[in-house]
Amino acid sequence: MADLAQIVKAYDVRGLYPDQLDDRLAELFGAAFAEITEAEAIVIGHDMRASSPGLASAFARGAVARGTHATIIGLCSTDQLYYASGNMNVPGAMFTASHNPARYNGIKMCRAGAAPVGQDTGLAQIRALVERWLTEGAPPAVTRPGTLTQRDTLNDYAAYLLSLVDLSAIRPLKVVVDAGNGMGGHTVPTVLGGLPLDVVPMYFELDGTFPNHEANPLDPKNIVDLRARVLAEGADLGLAFDGDADRCFVVDERGEGVSPSAITALVAARELAEHPGGTIIHNLITSWSVPEVVKEHGGTPVRTRVGHSFIKQEMAATGAVFGGEHSAHYYFREFWNADTGMLAALHVLSALGTQPGPLSELVSSYDRYAGSGEINSTVDDQTARTAAVRAAFAARENVTFDELDGLTVASTDWWFNLRPSNTEPLLRLNVEARDEATMARIRDEALTLIRG
């Protein structure tokens, strides 16, 4: 029997195909999803992995057998699935394992209006139902099954995004786009096709084996090709998408990566110009610059835990207009509080294209501090190592602690956050300081304590 504890994560389902997740199991997940959401209709999409179409079809069969009408939108990015869920106001399921290697696949689920499904919002119930059916056998099909239909939403998705950002007055720009053989190769030509852009495509061929590099642009080694191509082409900027194209990473005209915190601050300033006095959500490891910029533009910053379910919950609770994370996830009220890297990219293109300077100059006012990026350390005891760090820094003057998410230690000139991984024996360290030398000193002190 499948071990669901291995594949049902905090926010989604993810495992090896077919060892841990196969078509039979996907069918049971589809039935359970229909049962728990009590939906009359759902929408289902999938990425370019070889196993994705079969898994999506199996999930649809399970839902239809429970009397739910299922619409399959086929190849799509995760934010395109969120668009369909929001626009149709029905629950949705996306088959993808994002940037994980080819043998992996998974399911990202949402309720109607792209509302998140996580452990506390239905995923635990779905898992329990699937486990029961695996033991006792699935319930008999209902007397009146649902219907199965196909629908293409790509053009509607593109038109909706373009309606949210004014790009009518931008100057011609040259942009290199690295799709990483993921779903950006499917969505970018349609979304950017009608704009005054010279798009230089990299790795647009849909290939779930990721033959060129891992489709995770947050890892510096995966944007080496993009950085080189931006310089070679004399481009104005570069964009890199992850495997399911819900995250977008930006490279400036010098081939240098632009911090997702700087992008968060830039987009926040633009959103606050449209929605004066609005609330902006940022997780606790985005830069100090984010809440500073929000306040400078008359907005209210709200600090949250790391993770899309926390961001989305806080956005719904506060009516926030925008939210950003260090991981290059960007959330918009006008996009059902869901994350879409493509919409953030359009904001960057609009901001750059409506003024004459280069991107590095534009983002310099939003990138004010020295940051370490996320540093992972394998440890034998996460709790003990964290306690050792806290004890060492507690002896210092003018140091504060909070435990909103892991341990955050702050002083007047620096801060760092230390968070345990939920799935691996890792501690994740993020450090920021007012200058590079201070950041390096605090980073090295913390790492010495963490790694013993």
UniProtKB/TrEMBL annotation:
Residues 6-132, 156-255, 265-369 form the Alpha-D-phosphohexomutase alpha/beta/alpha domain. Keywords: Isomerase, Magnesium, Metal-binding, Phosphoprotein. The keyword Magnesium applies. Residues 374-446 form the Alpha-D-phosphohexomutase C-terminal domain. It holds the Pfam family PGM_PMM_I. Its cofactor is Mg(2+). Gene3D superfamilies: Alpha-D-Glucose-1,6-Bisphosphate, subunit A, domain 3 (3.40.120.10), Alpha-D-phosphohexomutase, C-terminal domain (3.30.310.50). Signal peptide: none annotated. The keyword Ribosomal protein does not apply. GO terms for biological process: carbohydrate metabolic process. GO terms for molecular function: intramolecular phosphotransferase activity; metal ion binding. Belongs to the phosphohexose mutase family. This is Phosphomannomutase/phosphoglucomutase. It comes from Streptomyces corynorhini.
